Amino acid sequence: MTAFTMPSLGADMEEGLLQEWLVRPGDRVHKGDVVAVVETDKAAIEVECFESGTVGRLLVAPGARVPVGTPLAVIEGEAVSAVPTGAAGTLMAAGPGEPVGEAQPPPTHARARGDQEPAARHERPRPRRQAARRPEQTPQPAQAEARKQSARQHVQALPEPSAAASSAIGAGPLVRHLAEHRGVNLTTLHGTGPGGRITRADVERAAPPRTARVRATPYARRLAHDLGIDVRAVRGTGDGGAVRAADVHAAMRTGTGAERPDRGPAEGEQRRHAAAAIDNRAEERTDAMRRAIAALMSHAKREIPHYYLSTTIDLAAAEDWLRRVNRGRAPADRLVPAALLLKAAALAALEVPTLNGYWQNDAFVPASEINLGVAVSLRQGGLLAPVIHRVDTLPPDALMGHLKDLVQRARRGRLRGSETTGATLTVTNLGDQGVEAVFGVIHPPQVALVGFGAVVERPWAANGMLGVRPVVTATLAADHRATDGAVGARYLTAVDRLLQKPEEL
Amino acid sequence: MKPLNNADALAVIKDSITQIIPDADFTLVEPDDKFRDVLELDSLDFLSLIELLSERTGVRIDEEDYPELTTLSDAARFLVDRTTVRS
Predict the structure, then answer these.
(1) Residue A203: inside a domain
(2) Does A294 share its domain with A311?
(3) pLDDT confidence bin for A208, thresholds 50/70/90
(4) Residues of chain B neighbouring A404 (CB-CB closer than 8 A)
(5) Do A334 and B22 touch (CB under 8 A)?
(6) Mean pLDDT, chain A, as a whole number?
(7) CA A222/CA A216 separation, integer angstroms
(8) In degrees, to the nearest 5, what angle opens at C-alpha A258 toward C-alphas A255 and A263?
């Protein structure tokens, strides 16, 4: 059994807001499954579980802002999950005076088994200490519970009969489990079984099975809630029929169209308010992101002595190769120049490893992998730099797939936790905005940032002949504490050389 | 492949762009503007647009055809031509 903790979703992240649980106690999860949505200053991130098992207690309610490392839920290991009713409650013996314990809803029931408690306590010391340092961050249970109730009707409240009451109730473990799952308070039920025992049927009568939870993006849920639209009634067009924000907008549009003739002024007013609320929230997010970028970039410019290099690279070979490869391919399988530029940037870092890593404690620490942060500008303003891991090992097709997927999800606010951390070198490609060169600011603690401008046609002299060629300006901003200009020059020369043999990328 | 008239083609194009950029404001785009610049479609967005247009219209769009998809009016004409004339 382990604690699932608030992950660090970036070097500069200290705390995160648990926006939404995507699992419930008793759900089976596998390593890598998305289990919750956490909001940072920059974005809502889908966080994955690093453990396979069964979800036990949820320790933090949606809406709570907690420091990195705080336990959010208990994940029961395989062995424990074999006892289905043991799922929740083994950790609830949290004593008084523990901030995290206090923030939890009251114990679910008296099923804590003495033999499991010690193990549970061993798992937790580190996060507990962190939480204790900032007790004011942990919301009171009543508050959190109320917020959850009002803001998210689709998340049923965790059942919370008192421990004493529940232990006195005659109900078998399977029935208890079912009750917990359905959010039924056993103390309120009248048992119809032998000796007044509560049976499965009693629980089912009290709470008919919920319809399957609708798949929807967190943003779509929020939007639907703000607009007063039932997300279950929206037709989803996302992955696996998931409801996306665009679907909610569409539903809103069609709904409005149908209602318009007899719509009163009051309703129009209401909708305007709802729209204003969304605008405000988007603005808040944008403001928070602006502040996060401001802090990081100020830090970078204050601390890092940047030096800058620039070179113009002939892309005729790369473009010819792309044209040949893309000919006959369906649009979905085609490559764009950015895929080759990223691959070249990664392979060049393999040759010049002193640009790939971190400046820490007055020394350069080389990274063991080449993980490229890719600067993605967001349409509403601001930017994110999600990470593609081990780019040097990816064939162009795979890299292209990652790039498309990542950019799309970054813009829709559906990045995963593992995609926001671990960048060892960042690449920015402002070429699509039409500028020829971009001299970037290094993302600390990294030591370099590679920039590619627009691919443009320019007169080009080669072999004593003047011709017109597609060219790109590649730049490097590097940390002078870690490297000198000669190293940077070697890097850009390598990028140039690699792009002349695109078939080898 | 269903023959498209100009209005149909324009509708498909705008609808596809809206799917990529949900808040795209077409009042800003004159028929002869380079819509990629005005609406800030990057190369990945443009590729998605090509993907959507070929899916929805059944028209095969090669890279050589990209220059025809620079303005809304050119793009609509391109789709009309490719869905009708060929027989």
Answers:
(1) no
(2) no
(3) low
(4) 44, 47-48
(5) no
(6) 76
(7) 10
(8) 95
* Structural domain that includes position A323: 306-504
**Shortest CA distance from B66: residue in chain A:** A331
The answer for residues whose C-beta is within 8 angstroms of residue A55's C-beta and 6 or more apart is: A23, A24, A25, A26, A27, A28, A29, A35, A73, A74, A75, A76, A87
Chain A residues with CB-CB distance to B22 below 8 A: 245-246, 249
CB contact under 8 A, A245 and B22: yes
ipTM of the predicted structure? 0.87
Maximum pairwise Cα distance, chain B: 38
Q: E strand or H helix at B27, and its extent?
A: none
- Chain A: closest CA distance from residue B43 (Å): 6
Measured between beta carbons, the chain B residues lying within 8 angstroms of A434 are 37
In this structure, the answer to whether residues A360 and A455 fall within a common structural domain is yes
Same domain, yes or no, for A397 and A483?
Answer: yes
Q: Tokens for B4?
A: 């498209």
What residues of B are in the A interface, CB distance below 8 Å? Answer: 18-19, 21-23, 37, 40, 42-44, 47-48, 50-51, 54, 61-63
**Which CATH number goes with the domain that contains A230?**
4.10.320.10
* pLDDT per residue as tens digits for the range A323-369: 999 998 999 999 999 999 999 999 999 999 999 999 999 999 999 99
pLDDT tens by residue, A6-21: 888 876 788 888 888 8
Q: How confident is the model over A286-321, as pLDDT tens digits?
A: 788 888 889 999 999 999 999 999 999 999 999 999
Q: Which two tokens stand for residue A458?
A: 């320019």
Instruction: Kindly list the structural domains of chain B, giving each domain's residue range(s) and its CATH number in brackets, ordered by start.
Output: 6-23+31-84 (1.10.1200)
Count how many domains chain A has: 3
Same structural domain for residues A34 and A113? yes
Q: Which residue of A has its CA nearest to B38?
A: A433
